[in-house]
Amino acid sequence: MAKNIYARTIYFLTEKNQQNDPVIDQVQKQLCVEIPYIEPNDLMYAMQLHKHKILMIDHQNYQTLNNQIRDLPLSNKMFETILFNVEKRLTTEEILCFGNIKALFYRHESIESIARGCGEVINSQNWLPRKVTAQLIHYYRHVILSQTSPATVDLTSREIQILRCLKTGASNLQIADDLFISEFTVKSHLYQIFKKLSVKNRVQAIAWANQHMLS
Question: For this chain's UniProt record, which GO biological process terms are given (predicted)?
Fold first, then answer.
């Protein structure tokens, strides 16, 4: 493939000082394009410079990356993401943590398949397994249905804070640390939030928050 076909760039989100990754190296060769490496610190502290870039993430290393810099802003709509080396099917909540996910590759998939999918993403297409697509369709249908829900709900200021944390993909423990409260208190607030919003889980609460909360 000719390099000048592509206008958009994939960046490999990697651990600090990692020099090379065999999958990334082979995908670069297949596509004849460079995939620059970007570390979590760069992503966190220079977000404005990295708007609208495509982030490629090794799912097996994601927890390590997230531990380096907490609350990686992957759920932000500005980031398109490509996830590879996925061991098993992810829950909808896990998928949503990766923002505007454009492609997902399981561990068994060939380099040729990964490279082809990445090429499609660079050309503004999606490359998602059918089951993942079905999960996202179901989720966004719920978002549409939630438009009929009352926008005015009697939430406390603390409950609003917790809803905003949920939108970033934060765990109960992370929310507790950020708000200087116990994890038990977070769970208690979530119970009340779910009850007030008439939702059953975090995914539905996030859908409501995305629809009715500006920030």
Answer: regulation of DNA-templated transcription
